[in-house]
Write a structure and sequence with these properties.
The structure is a homohexamer of 138-residue chains.
Chain A: E1 2-14, H1 23-30, E2 39-51, H2 63-78, E3 81-82, H3 97-111, E4 120-129, E5 132-136
Parallel strand pairs in A: 1-3
Antiparallel strand pairs in A: 1-2, 2-4, 4-5
């Protein structure tokens, strides 16, 4: 078993705001992340899949196809977007890095078979900033 | 003469949108950067000053004081903010990286004397993404 | 279960020196790291915790609080310090990166409950240089 | 148990080409990676070993010795080389990053005891580019 | 006047070999860089242009267009190629980083007017490795 | 004219302390950098030289020779050392990054002719931390 990773990136706006709470409670809990006029980040996304290298290619997965899959299914839908307003799969969810990673997992677990019969999704690693990041293993 | 630099960072939302143009013209010129719901970035800001090292300290400028100046005058005003809506000195200006760098220069040229009698502002370098950046020398 | 990480940094002096050994033996084993006049590093510290995102916030842990905890309990005690002479929890221990990581784990395992009821400490990753680093999982 | 890592690097040429297939089939599967005149990369290699810190040194392994081992056994054999033509242990294998990592594992698992009685090999992480990398745990 | 930069990358094979010299002389001068079976690198290319921001856009140059120009005129011609054998503009030249940067300058100086009436080429910065790089200002 | 750069690194201890001042004055001016038990850094040093590429090699300077020169004349003398106590050329000088860069310039300006007849020293760039750095052009 070998683990293969591809890094992609996207730039998006978001805010952290719980609609069940008052403006004051949101500001108390989320601080400047609750700014009503939004803020944003350059996100870095690392997708890791695992499997055996195919003897004919030496590949666990064709990284060009994995890159195209991530772009088509994820970064095209979030890049230069507002994660709270523009992204179907984040509707009615807190736009936290944790929740983004979980939704990215669901999408790629469903669509990875279109680019590989044998590779399995292993990890979604998502950097919100170079110093803050999350990892999700399903 | 020696050049001394300090890097700071901030996260902000913006869009590129010229109010004199139609929505269509804006989208044609700015592409996804014109997204009406905003997008955002992790900006990295490098401020360079120049001067002679003071004999008593070996410093051109006290970098802790330069860092505090940049935070107080710039990053506190743009971090977790919307550059088009929340930032006084960007009112009625296109929120391009170029224009941000020019405004940062004006602010720091005016306020640098509060932390050093002798150092002069030399360059504002601003990364919008790790691959796109501008430099301004006044 | 999702894993959330925060990176902090500190600059410190140390040397590798076993008081049970002669100067010659120390120099033979530790090479230039045994230099009696010390040397130092910019350390990067990545703390990873794990848990379920809280529904109200989307957070496993509030990263601002985790950052404050790491600063208060660790980096304030080691930054701009001598790891052999100035740091209580390294007394009578070899100032190796391995031992530092183990001590950081003990401190954060004890104090993490002050910032989160549910998150558990998962990993301490400590870079001594960009090319040399250790990971400790308890 | 603690995990200790050392990063080394090398620059090499390779191509992806399956001799059982036609030139056309190779180009269809491998795209520009099949270019008959070769292309190349700056590879970054991170070797992780695990064990208990020795009480006398605080070390799981002497990183200088681990670095020398990696250089002698691996990077001296692949740096400024053609991975398909010049490297014994890649003969008759696809020169994929996956296969390189597996061969590096075999070499280091066999030779690690020459620098440590107690440390065990844990992971080979190999970056072909900053955005494409593999991990192998044996 | 403001300076705007865009970073692109490419992976290529090359060798340093002067056909006027013997194999021995080449190996003496160029060391492992003369390896007859080639070696290769991940090159990072930073192109800097200068000009005044246009009032309507706030841009010195549209970075998307500059990126497309660099890809079309340069990286499409060198990525996954052999710099000595496959690249027209390097024919009969030593494939050094210096000479590559000079040829890239000539190409972009000629073609930059297709994406901007006013911006001028300022610098070609080319990293052969993260530790070796050249800059050319025309 | 083309500019060629080589990056090297070293790890060292230092403190900022002016012997003409009281302990209190030193602490007031230099803060934690005055810690009497020292602190330290991983320094990154970038040396830039300029010249015309030699027709026979395509090189402004042989970077392997430049690297060996920097190691022999500088990093061997400061790596794993105490900059205040162990380094001849820093005797009786404040161990600031500015002063280090100026001393490195003097050494390399004098010794560069031993590795190149034609290249001229252009810049010493010295990172004390990833966020604090100086540049000196003679």
């Amino acid at each position: 078993m070998i683990f293969v990773s591809r890094q992609e990136h996207f730039n998006a706006a978001h805010k952290l705001f719980n609609p069940k709470w008052s403006k004051e409670k949101n500001e108390e809990v989320f601080g400047p992340c609750a700014n009503s006029n939004w803020h944003g980040h350059n996100f870095d996304l690392i997708v890791t899949v695992k499997g055996e290298p195919e003897p004919d290619t030496g590949f666990v997965v064709d990284l060009k196809k994995l890159s195209q899959l991530i772009r088509r299914e994820i970064t095209d839908k979030v890049d230069h977007k507002n994660l709270n307003l523009d992204v179907d799969f984040m509707k009615d969810k807190m736009a936290s890095t944790e929740n983004l990673a979980i939704e990215f997992w669901k999408i790629l677990e469903r669509t990875l078979p279109t680019v590989s019969d044998t590779a399995q999704l292993h990890c979604i690693k998502l950097y919100e900033t170079p110093r803050n990041f999350v990892e999700y293993y399903g």
